[in-house]
Every structure is written in structure tokens, then in C-alpha cells.
Design a protein that fits this description.
109 residues; seven-stranded mixed β-sheet; four-stranded antiparallel β-sheet; 50% strand
Length: 109
């Protein structure tokens, strides 16, 4: 079993940046991913990263969002730049089919 704890969400103005963190209770020798779910919408994949550092970012978010991980800290990060109101959602971390509790990101002026 794995516990995942996200942090770093909050309220930010359009054009601003946030960095989300997700720390696992043990080492993850597999893909870690970020998803998001906006009100009334399906959960969608934002980005994923293998244990070796290969990344995949949703095409609509490339250039603004970056995923990275620190295996020594069992932590995956999501750097979000040039945020837009449509990025407002609860952001979830996932690994091995386990999910964190989510962290709210609100982009509003």
C-alpha cells in the first residue's frame, strides 16, 4: 500500500505560477502521474513521469506545465506556469493505482 500526499495548491491570479508536490510513503519504482478534475468534468491526465525521468505532458498543457520527480525524496512535482482560469481544478497524484486526496488549484483574479 502507498499513501500519497499532495501539497502546493491554492489561489493564484491568471498568469501566475504554482508548484505542486506529491510525496509517497515509500519509494515508487514506476510511473507517477498528475491528474485533475474540474467541477462537472471528468478526471483527466495532466502529466506522467517514469522512474527513469521520461515525461509525458498532455498536449494542451505542453509549454506551460512541467513534471519532475526526486526519487530520493519519493516526490513528484508539477510546475504550472502561465496559469489560466480553465486550469482551476482539484489536482491528484497517482501511483500504482493509489491516489492522493487532491489539492485545490483556483486561478482567478
Amino acid at each position: 500500500q502507498v499513501q500519497l500526499v499532495e501539497s502546493g495548491g491554492g489561489l493564484v491570479q491568471p498568469g501566475g505560477s504554482l508548484r505542486l508536490s506529491c510525496t509517497a510513503s515509500r519509494s515508487i519504482d514506476s510511473i507517477m502521474a498528475w491528474y485533475r478534475q474540474a467541477p462537472g468534468k471528468r478526471r483527466e491526465l495532466v502529466a506522467s513521469i517514469t522512474s527513469g525521468g521520461s515525461t509525458n505532458v498532455a498536449s494542451s498543457l505542453k509549454g506551460r506545465f512541467t513534471i519532475s520527480r526526486d526519487n530520493a525524496k519519493n516526490t513528484v512535482y508539477l510546475q504550472m506556469n502561465s496559469l489560466k482560469p480553465e486550469d482551476t481544478a482539484v489536482y491528484y497524484c497517482e501511483a500504482y493505482g493509489y491516489w492522493g486526496q487532491g489539492t485545490q488549484v483556483t486561478v482567478s483574479s
